Amino acid sequence: MTEVPRELYELAQLNGIELGFNDLDGQYRAAPPETLLKILGSLDVPISAPHQARDLLREARLASARLMIEPVIVAWQGATNFFWLRVAAEDAGQNVECRFIEESGAARAWTVSPEDFVECHERECDGYRYVERRVRLPDELPTGYHRFELFVGAQSVAAMLLSAPNRAYGAEGAAKRSWGVFLPLYALHRRASWGAGDFGDLESLNDWVADRGGGLVATLPLLASFYDLPGDESPYRPVSRLFWNELFIDVTRIPESQGCSQLESLLAAADVLATQSSLRENRLVEYGRQMELKRRMLEILAKRFFAGDSPRRHKLQELIGGMPELEQYARFRGAGAKYGRDWTHWSSQMQRGELPEGYFDEETYRYHLYVQMIVAEQLAHLAEGAARRDLTWYLDLPLGVHPQGFDVWRYPDAFAQNVSGGAPPDGFFTGGQVWGFLPLHPQRLRRQGYGYFLSVLRAHLSYAKLLRIDHVMGLHRLFWIPEGFAARDGAYVRYAADEFYAVLTIESQRFCARVIGEDLGTVPPETRVAMDRHRVGRLFVVQYECRADEYHALSDPGPNSVASLNTHDMPPFASYWQGLDIDDRVDLGLLKEDEARGQREHRAHTRQAVIKFLRHRGLLNEDESTEAVLEACLAYLGQSHAEVVLVNLEDLWGETLPQNTPGTVNERVNWRRKTRLTFEEIADDPCIDRIVRRVADSRKWSPEGL
Question: Domains, the chain, ranges and CATH?
Answer without folding.
Answer: 6-64 (no CATH), 82-164 (2.60.40), 544-643+679-706 (no CATH)
